């Protein structure tokens, strides 16, 4: 009898424990605390180090949330590679630098000190060439801003007398026969810069939202010595379109307008002032040239809304041509800016039903938390 009572008692305890776990689950992810793998790090010149963001929940990973990385001084340390939640840094020269990882609006910082392990060592006693003074070797410029203007954009824009479109770097103070290898180092996987025997130019436009790319041009001598200069790249087309967008916001929108009224003004502007052009899907070319297809128009609406402080995302999928989803005055609306209409193109703004909204979100892979 006593044995049976003990068994019943054990079973009762197990049942209570199971019930407790159902209503009060111990979530491992709840205890996760996001942090960088290091707060302080010392590296040697030339050394590489992988910095990781720790404590990312599996839920966030499934949603594909990314970390935005920033380096305070790219001449000291450069991001050589990126993965989902980590970066590989390369120490370039002595100095101090801050590396920041921005995730879900919060910044996490690692302080890195780069030291030179070769400090104190004497240079080789080998005599320099007669026309080479090693103490005076340098590039002919330390920092240059270069602009990009494509042949297509020259239909709408012209080169500025105040802007540089290519620059020829030279290593001063070396013999004429010394071989120099030139390269570009950039955080971007595909840099907008190219270098050809010291001549640096841009072969593509940086992204619209950033509108610039920072990089380094590197001259490497035969004996391994490296000389660098900072590069800042800009796009003429991006700056021109920013002027159009900001001009519209300043001239057509006013602080006393509701968000819905601003959205209506944006949709009206795009629909009434820009023609439909099949297969012209670049919204920047549309803004500059005056015509574009339904994809161009929805992107144009999105960036105008963004400039007005209104959240918007484009809708992509079958039967979603010309649609942009926006949030105005606390409600979600679909903005439809016309499809294959002649100018003036028709536009429509409506509040979708719950079923219609879920269909749009599903087909366009939209994360509604963006609008929170």
Helix-strand blueprint:
Layout: H1 2-23, E1 35-36, E2 40-44, E3 48-54, H2 58-63, E4 68-71, E5 77-82, E6 86-91, E7 95-103, E8 106-115, E9 138-139, E10 143-148, E11 166-168, E12 171-172, E13 180-186, E14 193-196, E15 199-202, E16 212-221, E17 226-235, H3 236-252, H4 259-273, E18 275-276, H5 283-289, E19 291-292, H6 294-307, E20 312-314, E21 323-328, E22 331-336, E23 348-350, H7 354-364
Parallel strand pairs: 2-8, 10-17, 18-19
Antiparallel strand pairs: 1-3, 3-6, 4-7, 5-6, 7-8, 9-12, 11-15, 13-16, 14-15, 16-17, 20-21, 21-22, 22-23
Label the overall shape. Answer: globular
Order of helices and strands: HEEEHEEEEEEEEEEEEEEHHEHEHEEEEH
Which percent range fits the helix content? 10-25%
Number of helices: 7
- Specify Rg, calculated over alpha carbons: 29 Å
Summarize the structure.
The protein is of the alpha+beta class. The protein has helices spanning 2-23, 58-63, 236-252, 259-273, 283-289, 294-307, 354-364; strands at residues 35-36, 40-44, 48-54, 68-71, 77-82, 86-91, 95-103, 106-115, 138-139, 143-148, 166-168, 171-172, 180-186, 193-196, 199-202, 212-221, 226-235, 275-276, 291-292, 312-314, 323-328, 331-336, 348-350.
Describe the structure.
The protein is α+β, with helices and mostly antiparallel strands and 372 residues long. The chain has three domains: 31-115, Immunoglobulin-like; 137-238, Immunoglobulin-like (Sandwich); 253-371, no CATH class. The chain has seven helices and 23 strands. The protein has helices at residues 2-23, 58-63, 236-252, 259-273, 283-289, 294-307, 354-364, and strands at residues 35-36, 40-44, 48-54, 68-71, 77-82, 86-91, 95-103, 106-115, 138-139, 143-148, 166-168, 171-172, 180-186, 193-196, 199-202, 212-221, 226-235, 275-276, 291-292, 312-314, 323-328, 331-336, 348-350. Strands 1-3-6-5 form a four-stranded antiparallel beta sheet, with no helix packed on it. The protein has a four-stranded mixed beta sheet with strand order 2-8-7-4, with no helix packed on it. Helix 3 crosses helix 5 (283-289) and helix 4 (259-273) runs antiparallel to helix 6 (294-307).
